[in-house]
Design brief:
There is one protein chain. By secondary structure, the chain is an alpha+beta fold. It has one domain: Muramoyl-pentapeptide Carboxypeptidase, domain 2 (2-Layer Sandwich), CATH 3.30.1380.10. The chain is 34% helix and 14% strand. The chain contains six helices and six strands; from the N terminus they run ααββαβααβαββ. A four-stranded antiparallel β-sheet has the order 3-4-6-5. A two-stranded antiparallel sheet has the order 1-2. The two termini are 25 Å apart.
Length: 175
Amino acid sequence: MPALTRAQLLQLHRTLGIPADYVARRHMPWQREARRLVPIGPAADDGQTIRLTPRAAAAWTRLRVAAARAEVNLLPLSGFRSVTRQAAIIRRKLAAGEPIGRILQLVAAPGCSEHHTGRALDLGSPENLRLDAAFARTREFRWLCRHAAAFGFYLSYPRHNLHGIAYEPWHWCWK
């Protein structure tokens, strides 16, 4: 499927009830969907194949190996996510009665998610396979804070980030 144009993304935002000023007000950059992806293995929580761009996958492998040497078990939970999938997540939450303002504190709008790039990973640990702030209390998170940058990964949504996204200690993106 070809990438959506900016106009198509803005129309999608309108159909989902995303405010017209979302991108500017939240300082959310538009993200391109990755075209070339490689599998990195199954998600630890549901077994779905996780895919990243080749360079991000290579960096992930180096990071994971270094963590394992330190007896830290980083478990991938998700990687690439298409604009279509991002929109489906928001539609599901809307159908469950969640207001769009609350949803956008937890999920980036379609076209703005780092997951579209194939460079973002949601990570867990053996003690925490959920996407929640409890991951910040794991030794895996502490190890990432000390070592992830050496492999090109950064925490995208720290506390009080300018994007208005809730604290996501599990969400790491490769440069």
